[in-house]
Design a protein that fits this description.
This protein has 17 helices and no strands. The protein has a single domain, classed as Orthogonal Bundle (Hypothetical protein af1432), CATH 1.10.3210. The longest helix is centred in the middle third of the chain and has 24 residues. The chain is mostly helical and 332 residues long. The radius of gyration is 21 Å and the shape is flat.
Length: 332
Amino acid sequence: MESIREHTLRQENLLLSPNAMRCADTKGRVIPEEPDTIRTDYQRDRDRIIHCNAFRRLQHKTQVFLSPTGDHYRTRLTHTLEVAQIARTMARGLRLNEDLTEAIALGHDLGHTPFGHAGERALNAVVPGGFKHYEQSLRVVDVIEKSGHGLNLTYEVRDGIVCHTRGKEADTLEGRLVKHADKVAYINHDIDDAIRAGLFCEEDLPRHITDILGNKKSTRINTLVLSTLDNTSTEVKMDQSVTEAFAELTDFMFKNVYTNPVCKGEEGKAVEIVQALYEYFKDRPELLPNDYRALAERESPERGACDYISGMSDRYALAVYADLFIPKPWAE
């Protein structure tokens, strides 16, 4: 009798585009495993990511605005969910593998530091060999999770995670689609958050851009998604006019938000906190929690400290810093 997994694989073979990655064609896992009777390998990868510790910590990691007090600002977790939704919608429209797309999207930022890109820059300046969050995301799923055993994900999910930003393009069209969806998501939700923060209003967006993309978040996302669906075959593409308008919108955001001292004014403090914590635990690897101490012993104190610090949430980093470096009042 055909299992649920076998039925899904048969449906993939019948329904997916020739450009899609079928789970039956996966390059597999580093450590081979017996197949599940219900879930395909990509569905198992998605579930492993959702249930891992690093995924839960994303809810308390900065997206753009450091530790915002408002309930409606994006965190790294809500960003991840928005990327997954946009990517999966486009994958469905292109008849690509939705499960592979979703797994990559959910795992793409697992290695992000506390305090967003400020934390990434802080570690990149002091860690031997530098630090890139996309490389750390792969290290999280390969090495750090499950007490140093890793999640043993499939090649295609791992490839999509490490290739979701700069450098090498992902081998699969699903991985390249997640890279595109990541930018579609963050540019548009960061506009939303910037308006909420009072940095500018919707009417301040250049008119020649909004005439093409739309004058509200949902309209812009819809324009970008539809243009992607209409123009993507073997490579992720949009109409030239949409591509140019989106590039201009990205430039607008870098000038008005990503380098704006109003929302970046505290980043210098964040950098100091991250680097102070790194130096402290690098020099005292015996004080690292057990899993990270084991990594320090197996690889190096620098590696153990980097893994520990980069995995912290904003509030946990602040709490550890305060415990180590802020004098406590005398108690009688």
